[in-house]
Write a structure and sequence with these properties.
With about 475 residues, this protein is α/β, with parallel strands linked by helices. It is built from eight helices and 26 strands. The chain has a nine-stranded parallel β-sheet, with no helix packed on it. It has an eight-stranded parallel β-sheet with strand order 2-4-6-8-10-12-14-16, with no helix packed on it. A five-stranded antiparallel β-sheet has the order 18-19-20-22-21, sandwiched between helices. The protein starts with a strand and ends with a helix. Pfam families: LRR_1 (PF00560), Pkinase (PF00069).
Length: about 475
Amino acid sequence: MLTGEIPSSIGNLTSLNCLNLSVNDFYGEIPHSLGNCRQLIQLELSNNNLSGSIPGEVLSLSTIAIIFNLAHNQLSGSLPSQVGSLANLVELDLSYNKLTRPISSYISKCLQLERLNLAINSFHGEIPLALGTLRGLQELDVSHNDLFGKISSFLAKLTDLNYLNLSLNKFEGEVPKQGVFLNASAMFVFENRNLCGGIAELNLPSCKSNTSKSFWTKKVTVITVVVAILSGFILWLCLFIIWYQRKKSKKITSSTELPFEHQLSRVSYGELFRATNGFSKNNVIGKGRYGTVYKGTTQGGGCVAVKVLNLDHRGASKSFISECRTLGAIRHRNLVKILNACSSMDYHGNDFKALLYEYMANGSLENWIHQGKEEDVEHEHKYGKPGHSGLMQRLDIAIDIASAIEYLHKDCNPKIVHGDLKPSNILLYNEMMGRVGDFGLAKISSVATAEAMDFDNHNNSMAVRGSVGYVPPGKKFFSLIV
């Protein structure tokens, strides 16, 4: 009939092995100072009026190895995670309290646990699957709580379990027919309204057939998969059509008035200087009216053609702008592709302009046919030496050139006139594919006419734009010849 609060000074009994204050009238909270009793192997405070939460310091007493009994009190709150410190505990009884929240999975660390009683509390949720590690568990009572879900299958696999009480909860689904569930006198599941099946002694309704549900589940799954596949196919088809239409349509919707500088990120003078080994003469692969073309090597080991404009030559700047605007607005497999542009200053403070193109390993058509120039010609063993191209190969190159010109004059919008089409401006790509280059004299016009290319309005009216013999034969040009 002891009453009052348990004094906190009880924590001074540091050599205490066993404390049993059960069946009295103690009230108040369990003193935290009990955590100082490091020699404690048994603690029983059941059948009192103790309230508040369970102190984590008390649950940290890893020496407790026999009984931890706080049953029949008014304890509330959750079961602290420190319960996992009771690694040697044999019996844990917290029944007849007001404990809430899900059952702590840390109980699974009490590997020596044989009896666990959590009955008549307010625990909710499912039984933690982690409790399946308690292979030596013999008794488990979680009755009269708010537990729900299906009965965990691990309970049927605990071979030492000889008492199981799951009554007065909200479990559902089928009762197993294994282990302790085969013994009606050792297993209790009453007052779980949604349970079914199990052994006959339980008198539970038989589980409804899942055939219909399974049929509809499979049907929905099949429909979902089919719809997903069809959606993916339709999406792929739409993307393919868009890609095909863009490839087929060679019209450029963007305006050529857009400055080329906004379409490509510029490359610096220093980068080109390093790529061409300081614009070395050994890297020169061609010279023209407005500049010199060098072979450049990128950081990744690839090759590019760098056309450096000779700005001292009259019309070089206009040639730079013309090539930028022209090649920046057109795309065709038989036109030389511009990669980048440089408009900067060199190391001496002079204006510097250059264009970067794809490197054409097989050189120009003029070198291939006339000069027999063999340096820079790759795959010689496959295509033969310059000057020995076959008729069909020449015909293929002619078709490539015609295809490019047809695109420029017919399909390109706005239409473009090259102005200086000659063998030295026809470059040979891989597989000897012909590509038209050097658009320095090109004219962009809504109506492509040869007359539009005859003269530069800002130059002398008698100056011919283009190479004699290859310039488009406009009316003014014929008059000049006459």
